[in-house]
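Explain this fold:

***
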Amino acid sequence: PPPRKELPVVLSGGGAVPAGGSLYCFALMVPGGYEEGLLRWQHEQRAGIFGCDEAAVYSNDSVAVAAGVRAKVVNSTLKCEYGGDSMSALNSWIFIAVWE
């Protein structure tokens, strides 16, 4: 394979924004499931979406995810059917609700 391109060092947690912009990350979670604990751990470790310049958590209930982090409410039940040839979640409309 070709050699890897060297990338500039990006400071996390309030460091200078490198030329080219910043990164906004989000997660959509079902309240009361395993995702709450996973997001809490990520927040404590400054990992996953919490390693980005800005982050938000969305859900269908305003639940406390971690210290200072509360889920923003999405107008959706977060329930969907499964289908298609791979029997995957037919959840595009849920993510569209997040963007609205």
Q: What stands out?
A: The mean pLDDT is 87. The longest strand covers residues 54-59. The CA atoms of residues 60 and 73 lie 5 Å apart. The helical segments are 34-45, 92-99.
